[in-house]
């Protein structure tokens, strides 16, 4: 049995000087369209925010209208411009619904500059070690890369430029993938409790021992930033020093992603049911002492890696509610404490159980994931038996 899935693939490209100029021009045009469209919407919002009917019925400038104001936009990819306006529309919908903050203006000094274009009439395709990008042409790809899945269709491509002046294409692929059926005869479950010092602790007491790549590089990063403060802003030496800092940040990011990918792959290969807790990381970042540690770990990124890898391998990924008291519940008798100070690292229960706080939470998470799976499995089996009985 096969199912159609959508996945992403990020590949480095090596454009020549003319192609790089074209990519940078399109990035600039997309940024200009976003900023002017946002400025128009902001003025209309300030004018009609007390009159919802007028606000929703107002017609904003289209891509065609902006091209009459800025004729050079005709040289850019029209699909990229159209996508940018769609993203702005979605950003305002999210703002009106209260799920996101008000959209911000884009700056060319931001960390990542990019644009997204969609495939129409096979205008985006790969042949050998080259990829065809609209308005840019055939661009050389990185040689040592993974092959795309068989019969994969490129739906869209995002062209990006990093602070270190490296260019990448992020492909949105659609293809049919074989559904992996889970072996239900033997189930291995694991519970993972988030740890500020070790990344996580599992139900057996093993720790991930995250290397803290940002913390290891703080001394070197501080030295480079002090050197930057002595440079004349805007000079060539200032830009060279900024590039050194950007390269160090890029190295830290690559190290972190490599660790998270390998760790998530190891867990998915060895376990059938993986249970984690739900954390409010944004709230934790507000704490002065934890902010840098939480940002360095990228725990939310690790959860996303586990999710899609479990889906591909036919494994069960379960994320318990953030209100589930995994740390306050005794893993031996099930008694729940009303309060448990964060400074107390040992869990002591009236039943006589004395256990490490993180280990106790990991055991509770593993049991909760296994219980949830068994309940769903029994319900599905009961429903299938009832359905077969009705058919008879």
Secondary structure blueprint with pairings:
Elements: E1 2-14, H1 17-48, H2 52-57, H3 63-69, H4 78-97, E2 113-118, E3 125-127, E4 130-133, E5 137-141, E6 153-161, E7 167-178, E8 189-195, E9 199-202, H5 213-216, H6 218-229, H7 236-270, E10 273-276, H8 281-285, H9 291-297, H10 299-313, E11 316-319, E12 346-348, E13 354-356, H11 357-391
Overall spatial form: globular
Low-confidence stretches: 385-392
N-to-C span: 26 Å
Number of strands: 13
| Strand order within the widest beta sheet | 2-6-7-1-5-4-3
> Beta-strand level of the residues, as a percent range?
15-25%
Secondary structure tally, helices: 11
Radius of gyration: 26 Å
Give the proportion of residues in helices.
40-55%
Describe the fold and architecture.
The chain is α+β, with helices and mostly antiparallel strands. The chain folds into two domains: 2-178, no CATH class; 189-208 and 263-391, no CATH class. The chain is built from eleven helices and 13 strands. The protein has helices at residues 17-48, 52-57, 63-69, 78-97, 213-216, 218-229, 236-270, 281-285, 291-297, 299-313, 357-391, and strands at 2-14, 113-118, 125-127, 130-133, 137-141, 153-161, 167-178, 189-195, 199-202, 273-276, 316-319, 346-348, 354-356. The chain has a seven-stranded antiparallel sheet with strand order 2-6-7-1-5-4-3. A four-stranded mixed sheet has the order 9-8-10-11. A two-stranded antiparallel sheet has the order 12-13. Strand 12 (346-348) and strand 13 form a beta hairpin. Helix 1 (17-48) runs parallel beside helix 4, helix 6 (218-229) runs antiparallel to helix 7 (236-270) and helix 7 (236-270) packs across helix 10. The two termini are 26 Å apart. The relative contact order is 0.10. Mean pLDDT is 88; it is low at 385-392.
């Amino acid at each position: 049995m096969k199912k159609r899935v959508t996945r992403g693939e990020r590949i480095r490209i090596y454009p020549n000087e003319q192609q790089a100029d074209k990519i940078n021009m399109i990035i600039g045009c997309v940024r200009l369209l976003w900023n002017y469209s946002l400025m128009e919407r902001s003025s209309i919002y300030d004018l009609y925010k007390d009159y919802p009917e007028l606000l929703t019925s107002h017609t904003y400038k289209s891509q065609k209208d902006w091209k009459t104001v800025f004729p050079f936009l005709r040289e850019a990819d029209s699909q990229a411009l159209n996508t940018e306006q769609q993203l702005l529309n979605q950003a305002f919908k999210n703002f009106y619904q209260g799920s996101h903050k008000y959209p911000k203006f884009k700056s060319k000094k931001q960390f990542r500059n990019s644009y997204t274009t969609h495939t129409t009439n096979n205008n985006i395709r790969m042949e050998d070690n080259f990829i065809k990008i609209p308005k840019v042409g055939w661009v050389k790809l990185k040689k040592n890369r993974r092959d795309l899945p068989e019969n994969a269709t490129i739906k869209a491509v995002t062209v990006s430029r990093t602070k270190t002046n490296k260019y990448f294409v992020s492909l949105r692929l659609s293809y049919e993938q074989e559904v992996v059926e889970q072996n239900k005869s033997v189930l291995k479950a694991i519970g993972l409790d988030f740890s500020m010092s070790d990344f996580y602790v599992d139900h057996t007491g093993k720790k991930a021992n995250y290397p803290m790549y940002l913390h290891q590089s703080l001394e070197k990063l501080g030295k480079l930033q002090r050197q930057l403060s002595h440079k004349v802003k805007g000079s060539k030496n200032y830009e060279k020093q900024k590039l050194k800092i950007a390269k160090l940040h890029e190295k830290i990011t690559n190290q972190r992603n490599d660790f998270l990918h390998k760790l998530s792959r190891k867990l998915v290969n060895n376990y059938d049911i993986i249970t984690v807790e739900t954390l409010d990381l944004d709230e934790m970042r507000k704490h002065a002492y934890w902010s840098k540690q939480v940002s360095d770990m990228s725990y939310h990124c690790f959860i996303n890696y586990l999710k899609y890898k479990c889906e591909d391998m036919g494994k069960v990924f379960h994320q318990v509610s953030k209100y589930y008291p995994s740390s306050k519940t005794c893993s031996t008798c099930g008694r729940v404490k009303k309060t448990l100070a964060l400074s107390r690292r040992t869990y002591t229960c009236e039943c006589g159980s004395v256990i490490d706080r993180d280990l106790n939470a990991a055991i509770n998470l593993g049991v909760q994931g296994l219980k949830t799976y068994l309940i769903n499995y029994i319900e599905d089996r009961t429903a299938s038996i009832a359905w077969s009985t009705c058919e008879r």
